[in-house]
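Putative hydroxypyruvate isomerase
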Amino acid sequence: MSRLNRVSANLNMLFTNVPFLERYKLAAAAGFKLVEVSLPYQYDAKEMRAEADKYNLKHTLINAPPGNWEAGFRGQSALRSTVQQFQESIPIAISYAKILDCPRVHVMAGIPKTDEDIQHAKATFLDNLRFATEKLKENDILCLIEPINAITIPGYYLNNYDQAVEIIKTIDSPNLKIQFDYFHAQQICGQLSASLTKLRGHIGYIQVAQVPARGDCATPGEINYNFIFSELQKYDSELIVGLEYSDATPHFEWVPGMNLEF
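Predicted structure tokens:
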């Protein structure tokens, strides 16, 4: 068992002053052994894997294809209008995950907008998650869902933890877990310690950023991350902590200072 929770660098949000593939080198130079890539599909998976291998980095997380990001899509799994596109996207996610040797895929719910999508969102989300969870399980990949706060993504279908737990219990698969992002949790419900305890057994991955500016955990803000990480270590020191915050030229002296390890 790991002594401390390990951190994973989000390569879409960190080191953004250099081209994407060059971020692997910078992550390794900063001390990272783990990286996550939220939106990998504009890049070649084999080239990503080659860069990761060159610097002895392991991928911990990718998202499934979210739809047309530039057009405002933030996932497709709760949208009845994109069921075919969603089901076609899961084999793509599996292909990337297998090439990258990545054990987790986050399936984004999306933003229902039309009357039909809104009316059928719950049933569509359940059907699509059953499909995704089973397909990912067949390939030894954990399926994750993440509640996202209404300030960051207004209208996002999966927007609270009671809803996420209800979905997990309905689908009833050990291969479906919650991606618990403290940045979103603080803005959804607060009570972060109580929320972690309430969700015991349902969490498969952690992400962090300060609130409200989405900076690193040592920047001033609403969350006391020194306390949070001490609580997390007692809760489950094996959970990986994805650093999903915005910083073009980040520094990471705070990581060991908050009892995390690379």
